[in-house]
Write a structure and sequence with these properties.
The complex is a heterodimer of chains A (761) and B (399). In chain A, 37% of the residues lie in helices and 15% in strands. Chain A contains 28 helices and 24 strands. In chain A, the strands form 4 sheets. An 8-stranded mixed sheet of chain A has the order 3-4-2-1-5-6-7-8, with helices on both faces. Chain A has an 8-stranded mixed sheet with strand order 17-16-15-18-21-20-22-19, with helices on both faces. In chain A, strand 10 (276-280), helix 11 (291-298) and strand 11 form a beta-alpha-beta unit. In chain A, helix 10 (258-268) packs across helix 15, helix 13 (339-346) crosses helix 16 (391-408) and helix 21 (613-628) crosses helix 22. Chain B is 45% helix and 13% strand. Chain B contains 15 helices and 11 strands. In chain B, the strands form 2 sheets. Chain B has a 7-stranded mixed sheet, with helices on both faces. Chain B has a 4-stranded mixed sheet with strand order 5-11-7-8. In chain B, helix 14 (353-376) packs antiparallel against helix 15 (386-398). Chain B is elongated, with a radius of gyration of 23 Å. The N and C termini of chain B lie far apart (64 Å). The chains are: A alpha/beta (761), B alpha/beta (399). Chains A and B meet through helix 4 and helix 18 of A and strand 3, helix 3, helix 6, helix 7 and helix 8 of B.
Chain lengths: 761, 399
């Protein structure tokens, strides 16, 4: 088979169970005769060998593709773009955040690369971890009508960020906006994959509980591969002089139960004056709490100096330390399938593990180690004491651990099970008819005698021209005629929403309606699609199909919206997936076109009071999303252009959308305050030299300048301050101060100068 | 068709247009008559009202090439990056050759671009761009030193200012396309795209056979300063582009070309290039290029000033040495630079007629002497005249 692993956690990425798994899986599958590709990051982590740094490296059946995602600190490269945008250069901080997130950048670059790779080698299947959601754009595009551009995707469960953050009680991480987007992408990957593999039943059960009835049909639990070095390494030098010690391997954090180990050690230390507690791994406790604080809280003062924190050590040294450890502890509240335990067992360690998670599927109680109830430090103490006090029993457990690990990590058996899953995916994929992907294949609309493929299902396109410029209307008319050419009535029909008495050069065959008419979707069957297109939208040929395909093809109910290139270079144009709650936040980017099933608009019985296009789009999207309890999802690609001003949620739009939801009983009655409107930032150098640095009269009406939202009541003040700044900037003394970079001096004596001297160093 | 390329990938010619009905047909015809015509032409038209799309479609139909015109309505802002990205999105999965609708292609231009991508799987292909300026300095001339760049073996700076670059569509997709931040003004966008490609591991390959002729035109979108885009670039890469490029050109590109090194076209003898300049046949070089071979362009007007007392003749010399001739484009340490600077000094500082003529005579004698030395050496070896130049300088200074 042709298998592609997609993960930045691959050699030379240091440490981590995911990297350990990928290193072994790629090599063993290649050795088993399969063509294996690994698409990974290019960061060298201090290594210089060509096989670890070159963009392309081939060894037998294994080919490694290294793409420049980000550096060792997960900082994307200077100048990196998300489609045609450098995220940090555009207005709208909120919108930049989700895009500049390294997982988003990596996922987009991976999808772009895999599209080409798939054309060249015709991959059978992709496998990617759910963590970091690197397969997100592949999956999104597969479900938006580009299915034949990518192979099916198997998501391999390791641990999702939401579970990891929650296990660590990281409330800030859980609430931090870019992380929330990232968690959403991870969960999309789990629910929209073609198959799901987890290494433990524990993780599979957890996902089944989190997403009941929403996981892929093809599911399997296959333990990790295990590769340990043939020869044991040398333990860290700090352990040379130590006789007996309890060992924990992994990041020192709540998720790993490090505090429980400390408590158990504190109880055991009185009886055994030689005993030490050794922590191998990066300290990552809560923000604002040091590891020393944690030790102080859990270990009696007289024993604190017997706790050794050695930080990250090499894998070989960690394995040697596990082999020498008196007892190996893994007291986690919950863990998926920890490689550290698997490796310690392989080294013949006397393991004591908690019963919540995959480690209890590895260790059989009293046969290959001891299993204790999670979060019970007394039980942990008892189990560790047994290992310490009964050397024969511990020796038996060590032997049992080696035997057990050999039986559950037999590479041949694991490969067979994995290939079974991949084969099932490939078989299902083969049943889907696909157009040819040859390089010389001309698009259908350019090939004589061929038409665009039909739009999926049945539906209605609503062309919103109310109040629109006539040139946008005529451009949109021609575009829609082309898009609907191959999908004639009665399957697909077209209605025009216009102002009463508005003149427009449109076909008489098209239904005309105004905001006071009964909305046409109320007469459609629930499964029909409704596509909303504002005048000013241009789709690439055939792109309307992608918008509609997503709502038909996605396994979970969703709405669909498009990313369109905007008219101005200064705004950030691409919104993430959003729920109805997001739409009540002032300043949220609104799509210019969307598709949804008629059943999700069933509450929307009127358009009265929604007299601007932004009002209608915001209110309808919010109502549909609330009705269907679903997200509106982008199609994962730019599919056209938008020529007018970028629509945002203004205060007016926000209030009308909230009122619309309330009217239809969709808004909680006690909810009174909504998200605030952003005030604009100071003008950037680009704006100063561009076309519209100051709000025009039209902008005031619309409430935005270059895509930045402006509260109308602040406009006068803004204009005054802006003019004052520009005048000051032009003064000779200010120019001299700027040239001399005398920011600090100037700021001290003239605080106001910061506005026109810049931020300084 | 004389193609030596066995093409496994198609090539799409991508053009951006606005009111270019007079030349777009020429562009398509020249592309079609090349040794390898494009498999598809994609034109992004920014709301032309002179019939550009119709002319393009008609010409493409006539020459038998499939053509896709994307008609954008006018939005007022100069959104060339957005339009280029539209074009690339509609291109075939292969080589995308990006140019402008006012460019005329050499007979082997597109084939050369294909050859570049055949040999270098991850590359930005490029070549020189000549301005078609009949009556100015010959049939056409090089501007912004693109001819010199095209003979330089490597580096990002060989990417020309004008539209003449190619890349695989896969690379465009991976990079995210052209940066829209450069919309609204001229310049730097192709350079920035190349910079990103290089950071990703691509190489920039310039070939003298991949040349285009640009038909100059008055700016149609109003005042668009390239400095604005340079600032955007500098901000994006925390760089000082003007300084970096200046150093690169001064220390590497210009001495390389002027020492006579010429890059052989990738397509070999199939591409006809002038022996001396490495440019298309009929190339009449601008003065700064002529001065790399001979001082005659300076000696002749000096002769005329010495022979004639007419102030108009002196004005011509003044115009030549102080305005037309940009000494920054002359190679460091070359005699042409030294002699040009000395001539500037003489015409600026020697005020009386007598002093001036005497100074010019001295200058002329030395210049002729060095010209003889030049002739005695190989055509391509321009490292000449160190001693006479030094003597000349001391003599003129003392005078």
């Amino acid at each position: 088979m042709k298998i592609c692993f997609v993960s930045y956690e691959y050699a030379p990425f240091p440490g981590g169970g995911i990297a350990t798994y990928h290193n072994a899986a790629a090599r063993l599958l290649a050795e088993a005769g399969h063509e294996v590709h690994v698409v990974t990051n290019r960061a060298g982590h201090g290594r210089r060998e060509p096989q670890l740094t070159q963009r392309l490296w081939k060894e037998g059946n294994l080919t490694i593709h290294r793409i420049q995602y980000f550096d060792e600190q997960r900082v994307p490269a200077l100048g990196v773009q998300f489609f045609d945008v450098t995220p940090t250069h555009y207005s709208g901080e909120r919108w930049r955040h989700w895009v500049a997130d390294p997982s988003n950048i990596a996922a987009q670059k991976a999808a772009a690369y895999i599209e080409t790779l798939h054309r060249e080698v015709n991959l059978d299947v992709i496998e990617a971890p759910e963590f970091f959601a690197e397969a997100f754009y592949v999956l999104r595009r597969r479900h938006s009508g580009w299915r034949h551009f990518f192979p099916p995707v198997c998501i391999h469960g390791h641990i999702s960020s939401r579970i990891a953050f929650a296990a660590n009680r990281h409330v800030w991480e859980l609430g931090f906006s870019p992380h929330r987007y990232s968690m959403l992408r991870e969960e999309y990957s789990i629910t929209h994959a073609d198959a799901l593999i987890t290494p433990s039943q524990a993780l599979m059960r957890r996902y089944e509980a989190l997403f009941p009835g929403k996981l892929p049909d093809i599911r399997a639990t296959i333990p990790y591969y295990l590769e340990v070095p043939g020869e044991a390494g040398v333990p860290p030098p700090e352990l040379e002089a130590i006789g007996r010690y309890l060992l924990c391997i992994g990041r020192v954090e709540p998720r790993k139960g490090s505090h429980l180990a400390m408590r158990a050690f504190g109880r055991l230390a009185d009886d055994d004056p030689e005993l030490r507690l050794v922590l191998l791994g990066k300290p990552m406790w809560h923000q604002g709490e040091s590891i020393d604080d944690v030790i102080r809280a859990n270990v009696p003062p007289q024993h604190r100096d017997r706790v050794l924190q050695l930080g990250n050590v090499s894998r070989e040294a960690a394995l040697a330390a596990a082999q020498r450890a008196t007892v190996f502890l893994h007291p986690v509240p919950w863990d998926n399938y920890p490689c550290a335990v698997l490796e310690a067992m392989a080294m013949g360690a006397a393991c004591v593990v908690s019963d919540q998670g995959g480690q209890s599927e590895m260790v059989e109680h009293e046969r290959s180690g001891l299993v204790f109830p999670a979060d019970d430090d007394a039980a942990l103490t008892q189990a560790a004491q047994r290992m310490l006090k009964e050397p024969e029993f511990a020796a038996e457990m060590r032997r049992g651990a080696v035997a057990r690990v050999q039986s559950i990590t037999d590479p041949k058996a694991l490969t067979e099970r994995k290939i079974e899953v991949f084969t099932a995916m490939a078989k299902r994929e083969a049943e889907v008819p696909k157009p040819p992907l040859g390089p010389f294949s001309m698009p259908a609309h350019l090939t004589p005698g061929q038409k665009l493929p039909n739009l999926p299902g049945d539906g209605l396109v609503i062309f919103d021209i109310a109040g629109a410029d006539s040139k946008w209307v005529s451009a949109g008319r021609d575009m829609l005629l082309q898009e609907l050419e191959s999908s004639p009535a009665p399957q697909w029909s077209l209605a025009v929403l216009q102002d009463p008495g508005q003149e427009a050069d449109l076909s008489d065959a098209w239904t005309r309606l105004t905001t006071i008419d009964r909305p046409p979707w109320l007469d459609l069957p629930p499964s029909h699609s409704v596509v909303w297109v504002r005048a000013g939208v241009r789709f690439e040929r055939g792109a309307l199909r992608h918008l509609v395909t997503q709502i038909h093809d996605a396994p979970l109910p969703c709405g669909s919206f498009a990313w369109l290139r905007p008219a101005t270079p200064l705004v950030f144009p691409y919104a993430s997936d959003f729920s109805w709650l997001d739409l009540l936040h002032g300043g949220h980017l609104l799509p210019q076109t969307f598709a949804v099933r008629a059943e999700h608009l069933r509450h929307c019985e009127t358009l009265s009071g929604l007299f601007r296009p932004e009002h209608r789009i915001c209110a309808l999207l919010a109502a549909a999303a609330a009705t269907g309890d679903m997200l509106f999802q982008h199609v994962g690609e730019i599919i056209g252009d938008w020529y007018a001003d970028q629509p945002f949620v203004t205060t007016d739009t926000q209030e009308r959308a909230a009122g619309y939801l309330d009217l239809h009983g969709l808004l909680p009655r006690r909810w009174c305050a909504f998200g605030q409107v952003h005030l604009p930032e100071a003008a950037t150098p680009e704006q100063e030299n561009n076309h519209r640095p100051m709000p025009s009269q039209d902008d005031r009406i619309r409430g935005s300048v270059n895509g930045r939202l402006i509260a109308p009541e602040r406009l006068e003040e803004l204009e005054r301050v802006y003019k004052e700044h520009m005048t000051l900037k032009g003064m000779t003394v200010v120019r001299l101060l700027r040239r001399a970079k005398a920011f600090e001096v100037a700021r001290r004596f003239w605080p106001k100068s910061k506005h026109f001297l810049g931020r300084g160093r | 068709m004389n193609s030596v390329v066995s093409r496994s990938v198609p090539v799409t010619l991508v053009l951006v247009s606005y009111n270019k009905a007079d030349v777009v047909g020429l562009a398509i015809e020249s592309a079609a008559s090349g040794s390898v015509p494009p498999d598809l032409i994609v034109i992004s038209d920014d709301g032309s009202d002179d019939g550009t799309p119709e002319v393009a479609e008609e010409t493409a139909r006539k020459v038998g090439i499939t053509c896709c015109v994307i008609r954008h309505p006018r939005v007022g802002i100069y959104r060339i990056q957005a339009m280029r990205n539209t074009c690339a999105a509609n291109a075939l999965e292969g080589v995308v050759y990006l140019s402008d609708s006012d460019c005329v292609f050499g007979p082997n231009t597109i084939e050369t671009h294909c050859e570049i991508h055949q040999r270098f799987p991850m590359a930005i292909g490029t070549g020189p761009r000549f301005e078609y300026l009949a009556g100015t300095s010959g049939a056409f001339t090089s501007t912004f030193a693109t001819l010199e760049y095209s003979h330089f073996p490597d580096g990002i700076h060989c990417v020309p200012v004008g539209a003449n670059i190619s890349f695989r569509k896969s690379l465009w997709r991976e990079l995210g396309g052209f940066d829209r931040a450069f919309d609204g003004s001229y310049g730097m966008e192709e350079f920035e795209f190349t910079e990103r490609a290089l950071r990703e591991g691509a190489c920039a390959v310039s070939d003298p056979g991949a040349y285009v002729f640009h038909c100059p035109h008055p700016t149609v979108f109003g005042d668009r300063l390239p400095l604005r885009n340079m600032r955007v670039f500098n901000r994006k890469y925390e760089a000082d582009h003007l300084r970096d490029e200046g150093v690169f050109v001064r220390d590497r590109v210009t001495p390389w070309y002027w020492s006579g090194r010429r890059k052989a076209p990738l397509l070999g003898a199939q591409v006809e290039l002038d022996d001396e300049w490495g440019a298309p046949p009929g190339f009449v070089p601008p003065i700064h290029l002529q001065l790399s071979r001979t001082l005659k362009p300076l000696i002749e007007p000096v002769d005329r000033v010495i022979a004639s007392g007419d102030p108009k003749v002196l004005a011509v010399l003044d115009e030549l040495v102080h305005r037309t001739l940009d000494t920054r484009m002359l190679a460091q340490t070359s005699p042409s630079l030294v002699y040009a600077q000395e001539l500037q000094w003489i015409t600026q500082h020697l005020k009386t007629r007598k002093e001036l003529v005497e100074g010019l005579r001295e200058w002329r004698e030395c210049a002729i002497a060095i010209e003889r030395t030049l002739r005695a050496k190989s055509t391509h070896d321009v490292q000449f005249g160190a001693v006479p130049t030094a003597q000349m300088m001391s003599h003129v200074r003392s005078a």
